[in-house]
Amino acid sequence: MQIYLPIAEMPVDPFVVVMLGGAVGFLSGMFGVGGGFLMTPLLIFYGIPPAVAVGTEAAQIVGSSVSGATAHLRRKAVDFQMGWILVAGGAAGALTGVAIFRSLREAGQIEVFISLAYMIFLGLIGALMLAESLRKLLRSAEPGARKRRRRRTAWMAALPFAMRFRRSQLYISPLPPLVLGYFVGVLSAVMGVGGGFIMVPAMIYLLQMPTNVVVGTSLFQIMFVTAVTTVLHAAANYTVDIVLALLLLAGGVIGAQLGARIGVLLKAEQLRALLALIVLAVCVRLAFGLVLPPPAPYVVEAL
């Protein structure tokens, strides 16, 4: 059985799409990421046009993030004060990203840009996360190793408007998380990602937030920013396929709940190492796609 997608203008197997949504939703709940870094390339590999994959994936991330954030809310593992600042920056970034996306699409370069951007960002982030996770795992295995965490937040406290984030036990300026949210908002709109693969390590290593609130706060921010991105893509670029989004959501919501339960059973270093391996695997696949010759030398598209 197949279902026709009105915006993507192609038939798909609904069971395959639901399974893809469930797998990515599972990762969303486990790692605190929106899952778009994996789902957008998978949709493109499946044959969905890149512009539609980016716009529709933003809608799918909203549902999976809501489900994952709800699970963390029940455990009181969300810093709302930090989350709203990240949301404010992310919403502004989404406006900028949609404008960039529209310009690249009109120039006919959106597909190449998306592949190159994914390969660069996923390669860098995956390598850094894997190296850091392996170092921490090796240190924890050493006898007598201390688990004391050194915080270097003095430079952020010296910036204007410094304030106390009680849930994260930080005293810093809201400017660094505001800029971080803006950057992730741009990526969300241009690449069809929630930005969790950047947000999670940045919150841990840059903002020095405790690991136990990072995942829930990341999902809280992703939930709102991707909702704004979805509306902007639908209104400005007409690239949100609601049928495809609903199929992805059907699997994503269930997968996120299961992922949140499994994630609690693993240590933070183990989670980061596993996420790094997945990120690098997607990076390698995209690199092969750029190097291998295309199935057709050119395509004809009616404007």
TrEMBL record:
Keyword flag Transmembrane: yes
Transmembrane segments: 15-38, 82-101, 113-131, 179-206, 213-236, 242-266, 273-292
InterPro entries: TM_pro_TauE-like, TSUP/Inactive_protease-like
Keyword Transmembrane part of the UniProt annotation: yes
Chief localization: membrane
Membrane topology note: Multi-pass membrane protein
Keywords, alphabetical: Cell membrane, Membrane, Transmembrane, Transmembrane helix
Coiled-coil blocks: none
GO cellular component: plasma membrane
UniProt subcellular location: Cell membrane; Membrane
Record-linked Pfam families: TauE
Family affiliation: Belongs to the 4-toluene sulfonate uptake permease (TSUP) (TC 2.A.102) family.
Protein name from the UniProt record: Probable membrane transporter protein
Annotated organism of origin: Amphiplicatus metriothermophilus
Taxonomy of the source species: Bacteria, Pseudomonadati, Pseudomonadota, Alphaproteobacteria, Parvularculales
